[in-house]
Write a structure and sequence with these properties.
Blueprint: E1 6-8, E2 11-16, E3 21-25, H1 36-42, E4 47-51, H2 65-79, E5 84-89, H3 91-102, E6 107-113, H4 133-141, H5 152-162, H6 165-180, E7 194-199, H7 207-216, E8 220-225, H8 232-235, H9 237-252
Parallel strand pairs: 3-4, 3-5, 5-6, 6-7, 7-8
Antiparallel strand pairs: 1-2, 2-4
Helix pairs in contact: 1-9, 2-3, 4-5
Domain AB hydrolase-1: 22-242
Protein name: Alpha/beta fold hydrolase
InterPro entries: AB_hydrolase_1, AB_hydrolase_fold, AB_hydrolase_sf
């Protein structure tokens, strides 16, 4: 299903459904398509919002985790969202963490999946090679447990990014910013209920990262999904959505037992 991309001022976003806001932040090579199954599942009960993060639109000085967080903050203020369930994958999780630490007042819960902020392998031992389609395909497949999840369309998107010199410079700037911006000493300040959903076969932010987040973030609960890599909401959407729905239902009805 195709969703309308709205634009207000400099902000582009999808907004579907009604109810409490469920704001989804994508990662470094992410796109709206990463969340299609999640949007379709939750738009009947929640207002599902996916802002397009300006990964390549900020000036180089502001191309950082902090710069993206400021963009998200201004967007939330413009739209006046409240009682937000804020979810981020990979770099989007990192941005979500920084936002909750700086501006917790509008956030009802935090959901992280494959989040950076403590440790990540990024592209592995090297940055993307321009013009080498097979290399890009192999690196994209490493995001997932099942290589077939890296469709040709997805590989083509990453390939196009990696063949644009300015975009590659900004990808590197964001990756370095994420590595520098380690949040280990601040995570104990997070007070909102937090859900961690992790692929047991994530090689970019491996399972030990999830366990460390779980240890450091108060009021957090951790779920692992087998045969799953760095983007569970793409690779195993049914299981991911079931875990997330139980968590959100529990917040709405604390006394209810979700089976």
């Amino acid at each position: 299903m195709n969703y309308e991309v709205k634009q207000i001022d400099k902000f582009k976003f999808i907004e579907e459904g009604e109810g409490e806001p469920l704001v989804l932040l994508h990662g470094l090579f992410g796109a709206l398509s990463n969340f299609k199954d999640l949007i379709e599942f939750f738009r009947h009960k929640y207002k599902v919002i996916v802002p397009l993060l300006p990964l390549f639109d900020l000036d180089l000085f502001h191309t950082s985790v902090g710069g993206l967080e400021k963009h998200v903050q201004k967007f939330i203020e413009l739209r006046d969202y409240k009682d937000i369930h804020l979810m981020g994958n990979s770099l989007g999780g990192h941005v979500s963490l920084v936002h909750v630490l700086k501006h917790p007042e509008r956030i009802k819960s935090l959901i992280l999946t494959g989040s950076s902020g403590l440790f990540e392998n990024g592209m592995g031992d090297s940055y993307p090679k321009r013009g080498d389609y097979e290399y890009i395909r192999r690196k994209t497949e490493l995001t997932f447990y099942n290589p077939a999840t890296a469709t040709k369309e997805l590989v083509d998107e990453v390939y196009d990014i990696c063949n644009n010199r300015i975009k590659v410079i900004k990808i590197i700037a964001l990756a370095k910013s994420a590595i520098r911006n380690n949040l280990g000493e601040e995570l104990n300040q997070i007070k909102v209920p937090t859900l961690l959903i992790w692929g047991n076969n994530d090689t970019i932010t491996p399972p030990f990262v999830a366990k460390e987040f779980n240890t450091l973030i108060p009021h957090s609960e951790l779920f692992f999904i087998d045969n799953c890599g760095h983007a569970p909401m793409m690779e195993v959407p049914d299981e991911f959505n079931k875990i997330l729905e139980q968590f959100l239902t529990k917040l709405k009805h604390p006394a209810a037992t979700v089976v």
